[in-house]
Amino acid sequence: MTLDPVLLALVAATFVVAGIVKGVIGMGMPTVSLALLTATVGLPSAMALLLAPTIVTNVWQALAGGDLQQILRRLWPFLLASVVTVWLGVGVLARVDVRWLSGLLGVLIAFYALSGLFNLGFGKLVSRGRHAAPVNGALTGLLTGMTGSSVFPGVAYLQSLGLPRDMLIQAMGVLFVVTTMALGFSMGEQRLLSMELALLSVGAVIPALLGMQLGQRLRQRLSEATFRRVFLSGLLAMGAYLLLRSLTG
Q1: In Å, what is the CA distance from 108 to each residue of 23, 34, 91, 144, 204?
Q2: What's the domain count of the chain?
Q3: What is the extent of the structural domain holding 126?
Q4: How crowded is residue 192: how many other Cβ atoms within 10 Å of its Cβ?
Q5: What are the residues whose beta carbons fall under 8 Å from the beta carbon of 157, sequence distance 6 or more?
Q6: In the record, which residues are listed under signal peptide (predicted)?
Q7: Which residues of 88-104 are buried (b: 16+ CB within 10 A; e: fewer)?
């Protein structure tokens, strides 16, 4: 990938927008950045670029509050399974036609948007069974390795547990940090993470943090419910675009 000024501006603008979304509603940075960057630079490069901003902006979320030990004690089978299977997913990414995985990402993004817009209640499905934690963790890690997205079924599973709001936010931060770190290591092993992409990802932390600051200020002036609907509608359109492009490309 050539690091020309147009690409640098595109990456910076993408992470400012993604940071604004996270600043307003508390989540959505990886999903937004994946959706926008996959449509322009391709899925593997988009996955590489989100690594540093996702880890940095979620570390505070994972460490904030006093529930980290309880989260790790309760969720370790889910988290361990998600980390282990990231390697399997990246192995698939390195060997299959990326066009189909871009389409899969489009499906996941659209699915996430629809579940948020219409409150479809998928948490009841993913939480069933004695082995729900390792099964959902394994599927989350596999899809993270293939598409870069840890949203499904990971977030739906965490939401289904009935955790207090602050603990839920902290648990999502832990999930995003551990799966993204595993993604970075496994992409490096598969030679999908070049030095140029790694440096650009580190540089993207700055616009992501600036966007978060702006989003936190906007939160006080905007209706979060209205912003969330607009955000999810935009994600639905982007997910549909990625799916159609994979089918027609």
Answers
A1: 22, 11, 19, 11, 24
A2: 1
A3: 5-248
A4: 17
A5: 78, 123, 126, 127, 132, 133, 136, 137, 140
A6: none
A7: ebbbebbeeebeebbbb
